[in-house]
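re: ur question from earlier - yeah i can do the single chain one, its not a big deal. heres the input i used so u can compare w yours
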Amino acid sequence: MTAKVPAIDQLKELAIPTPPVSYLPQTWGWGVLLLVVLLLLLFWGGRRWWQWRRDRYRREALARLDMLQDALGEDGARLTALRELPVLLKRVALSMPGGAAAAWLGGEAWQGFLAKSAPFSLPADFADDLFTLAYAPSDQILSLPGNRVDGLFNFSRRWIGEHHVAV
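and the output i got, formated as tokens:
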């Protein structure tokens, strides 16, 4: 006696049973909690996006500062890069919300503005060095020691990245 083997077309799929527990929350409190969490995430994401857009001028200034620092190694571009550093800082100050008041500042008032908006202490001669870079004769600028130029660029980078913005 041979057992009769059923054909493959005679097989039928089994029905998937319903889960014993519903996937929906059992109380309305879980729905409210989910809604609150989603709203908080939406608010947080919107705030981060707004801050990212607001700080665009910082990112652009830091990219330009990197280009200027790279140009310090080239003999022909060193003077141009050093002369552009004070201009870059002034442009950053003007790009800040409420920074239009910085347009006419110079000397001690400019140093005061930079110090007031920085969360760290700036060197006392920072504005004087920026004045030298902007207005001194070319040979005086090119004769600045490397550590002094590096310090100017480091403090400028830190000020651009960390200065306070009154919103």
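Residues 56-162 form one domain. not sure if urs matches, ping me
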